[in-house]
Amino acid sequence: MLKKGDLYYPTKEFQKRAIISDPKIYQKALKDPIKFWEKLAKELFWFEKWKKAFEHQPPYFKWFLGGKINITTNIFEENKLGWKKIKNKPAIIWEPEPTGESSKILTYEELFKQVCKFANTLKSLGVKKGDTVGIYLPMIPEAIISMLACARIGAVHTVVFSAFSSQALKIRLQITEAKILITADGYYRRGKIINLKESADEAIKDTKVEKVIVVKRAGNQIPFDESRDFWYHQLIEKESDFCEAEKMDSEDLFFVLFTSGTTGVPKGCMHVCGGYTVQVYWTGKWIFDMHENDILWCTSDLGWITGHSYTCYSPLLNGITTLIFEGAPDWPTPDRWAQIIEKHKVTIFYTAPTAIRMFVKYGEEVIKNYKFETLRLLGSVGEPIDESTWLWYFKNVGKERCPIVDTWWQTETGGILITSLPGIGPFKPAHAGLPFPGIKIDILDEKGNSCKVGEKGNLVILPPFSPGMLRGTYKNPEKYKETYWSQYGDKIYFTSDGAFKDENGLIRIVGRVDDVIKVAGHRICTGELEAAVNLHEEITESAVVGVPDEIKGEVPMVFVVYKGKKRGEEVKNEVINLIRKQIGPIALPKEVYLVEDLPKTRSGKIMRRILKRLFTGEELGDLSTLANPESVENIKKVIGK
Ligand code: WTA
To answer: Of 254, 525, 529, 574, whose Cβ has the fewest other Cβ atoms within 10 Å?
Structure first.
């Protein structure tokens, strides 16, 4: 039995079959990371080869300059496995939420035709290379088809998670000035139909959206404006099933994906065509050890970077099958996820610690009859996984046979940058592992010195970074410089994560050092929540902190200074509704506290750290430096501590 602190190595059998199993790859790659990535890039299909591999003009950098590529050509016509081999193979398995509804399979050939039809549709509606297209869809095949159709013609997709509120969608559409939005009538969630079209309609007011394409999914009643709305199925009918791929420059914008920003305005991470394709192809191949017949279930919604890279692009580039699921993993029964793994013979399962903690809570009893014989590799992503959850996953799902890749990365990095490779190991509970070959990282103290073994510091990425990393924040270059390139200068990428190395060099991620909290794996800025709460007319001030939660990892706690006359309960509900409206249900707080005053420094800065410590049990520290130390005593009474 594996214990905390133990190292686990892949079995001989796993190692023998693994795509990469020689640890020498690390030294080889680090000797010359640029050459290393060039070698990997050559394996893909380029219309024209790049003229220069890397260019660095801090804080900006470029990869494969002058190269011409299209990710969809690499997925379809020029797939490395060969078109003949993949043509009739399932590209997508779609599992709907209602258990009575059959799953759907799209082969590579069928998917290709659908993508081309929809690409031609977008063209007919006037979409050109470089235009942005909003995608607000549930987990249905059309979501992947839409992304690929944009990629085919060089349109820039901005996918917005379907559980985000209409306000959250609106601001993303406003920033990108998208003229087209692709959405659906509705979808199933825990047995109910969610009317997505209504949210979409609300969102497009005060935006530049001129046309809305609606996929018929749930068949629910929706408002339909004939002058602006189009049914997806009617549009594609008329179109040809072949569309020439646009030859994209390596550094052309591929997609913009927003992530929560401090002030309530989200940051659009810009990813480009060449480097992203190279990175997701290879990281997927090596980290998930993607073999021809693999069936990957990455449970992330397509609206997150994990969904972009490892539900959609990486498995398809590698010619394997990707599974997408419309519903929740524990609905209608707590073992729904286990049923899906067995039903579809999933071989690689990639999920977030929050989901695993939920499985743990339901208990081993629920899955005691599942053998998970098809599984051979497990993955974890999105937040730190603690030792006991790791061990539970290893024992009860992986049956002590499957390696676990604990993958560290960010929306900004585009692909995984730190993890153990499954054919090499070692895997150590709660440790992400080593940087991917060719990636140079360090852990620095506040002064910029490298930390010693076991010493906690800030995780940074050093030149030449990685081909798939962000090239900027959309229409906001200042934010790019300030967030990533100001802590240690413009040649060192600051991740905002705290980390340390163990004696084997394995990296353990401690968590964010900024105001980002991970709520059930979803990335939310406490500043964004505060901005939402402060819209309340009678709330003079607010502070939001993330506190530990058994299942969700962290949850937001909201403190508001309210001086009006309403009842406490009423104000709390108003706060909750504001958050629901501005962001969506994923950001709902665990508790809203009405307080007299918030602890502040003499210069007026709110001391969120103290509020957080009231929940974690840590020492509060010296309160005498506060301008209003008595506020802490009052808050203690309010929260009952
Ligand atoms: C956290 C998700 C610990 C980290 C792909 C990072 C992790 C943030 C891990 C990015 C991991 C991601 N272990 N923490 N394996 N993976 N994180 O942009 O704090 O949603 O900075 O991208 O998630 O979140 P994002």
So the answer is: 574
> CA distances (Å), 553 to each of 112, 208, 286, 542, in order?
39, 38, 28, 22
CA nearest ligand 1 atom 23, residue: 382
DSSP 217-239: SS-------TTTEEEHHHHHHTS
- CB of residue 509 inside a 6 A radius of ligand 1: yes
Q: By alpha-carbon position, which residue is closest to atom 4 of ligand 1?
A: 383
Q: Do both 367 and 422 map to the same domain?
A: yes
Give a yes or no: residue 518 inside a domain. no
- Plot region of 374 (φ>0 → left; ψ -120 to 50 → alpha; else → beta): alpha
Q: What element of type H or E holds 202?
A: helix 196-204
Mean pLDDT of 462-485: 97
For ligand 1, the distance from its centroid to the CA atom of residue 495, given in whole angstroms, is 10
For residue 501, tell me if it sits in a domain: no
Output the six-digit token pair for 184. Answer: 């659906």
Ligand 1: which of 161, 309, 381 to mutate, judged by most atoms within 8 Å of the beta carbon? 381
User: Which atom of ligand 1 sits closest to the CA of residue 419?
Assistant: 15
Q: Which atom in ligand 1 lies closest to the alpha carbon of residue 416? A: 5
Same domain, 537 and 617: yes
Q: Let me know if residue 500 belongs to a domain.
A: no
- Is the CB of residue 413 below 6 angstroms from any atom belonging to ligand 1? no
pLDDT tens digits, one per residue of 173-197:
999 999 999 999 999 999 999 999 9
| 45 three-state secondary structure | coil
Helices and strands (H and E) in the chain: how many: 21, 29
Is residue 138 a part of any domain in this protein?
A: yes
Q: Are 251 and 274 in contact (CB under 8 A)?
A: yes
Same domain, 491 and 443: yes
Confidence band, pLDDT 50/70/90 cuts, at residue 263: confident
CATH number at residue 419: 3.40.50.12780
Q: Which residue has the tokens 């693999």?
A: 294
| pLDDT given for residue 261 in this prediction | 79
Among 444, 477, 495, where does a domain finish?
Answer: 495
pTM comes to 0.97
Structure confidence by residue, pLDDT tens digits, 202-218: 999 999 999 999 999 99
- Indicate whether residue 408 lines ligand 1 (CB < 6 A): yes
Q: How many CB atoms lie within 10 A of CB 15?
A: 16
pLDDT of 518 above 90: yes
Query: What total of structural domains would you count in the chain?
Result: 2
User: Is 589 found in the same domain as 476?
Assistant: no
Ligand 1 proximity of 383 Cβ (cutoff 6 Å):
yes
CATH of the domain at 570: 3.30.300.30
Residue 382 Cβ < 6 Å to ligand 1: yes
For a mutational test of ligand 1's pocket, the pick from 314, 508, 518, 526, i.e. the residue with the most ligand atoms closer than 8 A to its C-beta, is 518
Residue 262 has pLDDT above 80, yes or no: no
Is 601 found in the same domain as 489? no
pLDDT, average across residues 573-592: 96
Q: Are residues 235 and 280 in the same domain?
A: yes
Give me the domain span that covers residue 550: 528-640
The residue whose C-alpha atom lies closest to atom 3 belonging to ligand 1 is: 384
CA of 353 relative to ligand 1 center, distance in Å: 11
**pLDDT at position 641 over 80:** no
Q: Copy the structure tokens of residue 314.
A: 């990486």
Nearest CA to ligand 1 atom 15: 408
Cβ 306 under 6 angstroms from ligand 1: yes
Query: Can you give the pLDDT at residue 257?
Result: 98
Q: Cβ(266)–Cβ(479) under 8 Å?
A: no
